[in-house]
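User: Fold this; tokens only.

Assistant: Input:
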Amino acid sequence: MKNSKTIEHYFKRFFPSPFSIAVILTFVVMLWASLNMSQGSFSENFIDVLSYWENGIWNQSLLVFAYQMMLILVLGHILVLSQPMQKLLDILTAPINSTAKALVVVTVSTMFMAFLNWGLGLIFGAILVRKIGESSAEKGFKLNYPLLGAAGYIGLMVWHGGLSGSAPLKVAESGHLASLSQLTVPDFLSTSDTILSVENLFIFGLLLLLMPLLFLVLNRRSKSILNIDFTGSKTKSKPNQEQIIRFEKSRWPALIFGILVLLAFVVQYKEMLLSLRLTPNMLNFLMLGLAFILHGNFHEFLKALKTSIGDVSGILIQFPLYFGIMGVMKDSGLAINIAEFFVSISTTETLPIFTFMSAGLLNIFVPSGGGQWAIQGPIIIESSSQLNVPLPKMVMAMAYGDQITNMLQPFWALPLLAITKLKAYQILPFTFWMFVIGSLIFIFGLVFIY
């Protein structure tokens, strides 16, 4: 870790923007797929790859998924901007007067929030970091702001093992496993066997204990810097004088509508709630109802909505690029070849570890847990049966691999970067160490805990 300054220097000098990364990965995958396809010449294969790419960009099911993910981010952001959540953030930031205290508070609270919901965890961590940065500027204490920004991103390292994890939620749907395989499989895997299993909760506990210690070590080896201009961060917009504002500022319409949404939520999903089975639609519906109630009126809700949409705009434009990459990897057989290679060199003991590694590699190119499960899921089911490895363990191995390389892939960091005013190259030298230590913890868990 004594070379962290050197790592930071190279990231700052050579690391491209997240959008440029998406474009570079597009070219790499197109070339790789064209060379990987056995039939036809390179030029013929490249024409096919272009077709796969276009089909992936406009894949209807993936566009629905993108909208679900955008809503999770936007609604999670709206919730965090509500007065009750702001009061909670004020309570958390009040006693903070050093980077060390800030790191512990941000790391632990962000991981807890991300375990509940990945979008809520990402936005909560980002806004908490921003609040502490503003507090540091006011109180005058030194703050390692880029390191704190990396801590605010840690939720994306635990999300897939949490209550909003895509793969565990998909396998909890009745009949989903059978739709992916011709083998005899369970009708569904309960979240009590995956997300809420003793093994997964133990691994999450290890992360809660060890990751703050990692940040404290990194803090001792890195300078405290705060070069962010927070001027105007607390300015208030002028009140709207239109007649309709009276209705929008009234508490009762928002309260009644919010209760109506929550009532529909309970009626529609009560059976799934009792069996601890969650879906993206359930989470969004719940957050929508809570957002109206916590904001207290439509005026405050709409102000928060305007802020939230602006901070996730970078993800919106990059989703189609990654869907195109996913289309190329899936239709050309490249993704299956990668997964099958890791399976081919596996034994009963090593299969979960190689599944973890292959999921991590695929996540660099396809930073979508749900999309990745669609590609890797059938192979996981088949290899689990062939080598007699418990399927819940395999699902979680894939989830761990998918989430850990988020620390190397800045796609999901875009909202945090917008809120904190940081650059990707400023946090990635620290998230690199999160990736290294986190990988060791997950591999330890797969070998010795499961």
